[in-house]
Amino acid sequence: MERVKALVIGGGPAGLMAAEMLGQAGHPVVLTDAMPSVGRKFLMAGKSGLNLTKAESLERFCAAYGNAADWLTPSLAVFGPQDVQAWGEGLGQELFTGSTGRVFPVAMKASPLLRAWLERLQNLGLEIRSRWRWIGVDGMRFRFQTRDGLRELQPDVAVLALGGASWARLGSDGVWATLLPDVPMTKFAPANVGVSVVWSDYMSDFYGVPLKGIALKAGHLSSRGEILLSARGIEGGGIYPLSPALRQRAALKIDLVPKLDHSSVVARLSKPRGKASLSNHLRKNLGLSDVARALLAEVARPLPKDPSKLALLVKELQVPYKAVRPIDEAISTSGGVMRDGLDTHFMLKAHTGVFCAGEMLDWEAPTGGYLLTASFATGRAAGLGAARWLDQARPSARA
């Protein structure tokens, strides 16, 4: 058994941020990760452009976390969108803000930022032990399966940053939940995920074609953004924010022309059609794309000729779906360690001296920088909480 000062388990954004806070406070940190290297999901997320955060007011930003907003707001208030940008620039990364407010590195990759971050952490004395899989804990004795067999560490303080239950191939498999049976948790469920739809063979010509300029809603949630049809169903940034409602089987409705109100659509569809087909009439008068007209015909065949009835379909097309896609296909997950199981510094009430951070906590948010920012913010808060714990001469349990 090896004694260490501070232990961080998990080398994603939350774990690395917690390690940075502990290191800056002067505490030596050992960070373990089950994968061959740290930040693997972070790197994968950056392949299509690393969306660090979103440039908007703190109030609007925090609202994106739904029921968890009041829980996360204190952490986001001290490390929110502006702070994430300053942190990235402090690591030598030039950033830019897109038209939707999303903030990216000019390099559009995660690897330069991660390299600079790891260099900073190494200068703080961080020791990284890869291929160390956490398999159990007894008090403050943490057991690991390593390339050299079973190993055991006994830290003075520990931060768990183990991720959610999606992207198992990159290390986020949620298996850790079985190692904390006395911690209150919500069952993992897919978030930022598409839905399964059974299409006719006719729709195969439109797989992978983006459907743009639409609005979507499910239950009390709404979204604007493009979607993609695939052999499996519907996916894409437009549908992902609706995941909480879709998991509850709320109806999925699509407005194909959100810039026009119902009466305007009726007026345009009431124009003489002449010899034009109904499909061409929709294209000419409403500007519906090929994929939009195909989706309309697929869901509402046969299409009504009455302009008012057809306008209702165009404005509120209800797409039948079977269920949300499996958790392995989700960008993130809901569920995890519940708020009631933690104190205000993210320390587990059932495990004195053990803190939690990141996506292993029971919150969810849409894509667009919200996931990363909350991981950074909670990692920072847990790291600072752990540092305070170490700095106390006679630590005592907190409510």
Overview of this protein structure:
This protein is 30% helix and 23% strand. The protein is an alpha+beta fold and 399 residues long. The strands form five sheets. Strands 1, 2, 6, 7, 8, 9 and 21 form a seven-stranded mixed sheet that branches. It has a five-stranded antiparallel sheet with strand order 12-15-16-11-19. The protein has a four-stranded antiparallel sheet with strand order 14-13-17-18. Helix 8 (262-269) packs across helix 11. The protein is elongated, with a radius of gyration of 24 Å. Mean pLDDT is 95; it is low at 393-399.
Termini distance? 31 Å
Residue stretches low in confidence (pLDDT < 50, at least 5 long) are: 393-399
What is the strand tally?
Answer: 21
Largest sheet: 7 strands, mixed
Proportion of residues in helical segments: 25-40%
Dominant shape = elongated
Q: Give the integer mean of the pLDDT values.
A: 95
| Radius of gyration of CA atoms, rounded to a whole number | 24 Å
Number of H/I helices: 12
**Helix/sheet category:** alpha+beta
